[in-house]
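So, does this match?
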Amino acid sequence: MSLMPSPFGRRLITLFLGLFLFGTSMGMLVNAGLGLSPWDVFHQGIARTIGVALGLVLIVTSFVVLALWIPLRERPGIGTVANAVLVGLSLEASLRFLPEATTLWPQVAMLLGGIVLNGLASGLYIGAGLGPGPRDGLMTGLAARGWSIRLVRTGIEAFVLVAGWLLGGTLGIGTLLYAVGIGPLVQIFLPWLTIKRSDGS
């Protein structure tokens, strides 16, 4: 009997690993203190305003965004629901165990490491092919209704970035580096990490 997991099992393992690393990368960006991704500026701004854990805000926001899928008639996959829950839990775990950078060079190292890890993690969970994350699904759902995906993504991320900043989220050079770097990084990692589907998998 083979000890290797089935094709679907490999996809699940890849998905969960990717989501765990994604949350960890977010924790690295938070502890670097040099700026977050647009959505995380928003999450952090809410967390600071109402005084709750950042991971909890991320989970609740994910399910609110999922509710917006209903009029778009988008269907979540296993990966969508797992994303909504596991990234927030992984983020909270990483914030408990990762050191907080307090001087410039450790901050820069943690920031750059977090961005690269985020690209790798994105390649893993997207490559598993088990459903988009809630925020990505919202963008693609709107695009399927005739909107330009570039316009939709830019508009949504600009809104959450400004709203998060006004609420006290961390906006900085890391925000710019993330915006510029994450696309190319995912493009590099995704072809290597995508698991090809076979019948029944």
In short: The mean pLDDT is 92. The chain is about 75% helix and 0% strand. The CA atoms of residues 46 and 201 lie 39 Å apart. The radius of gyration is 17 Å.
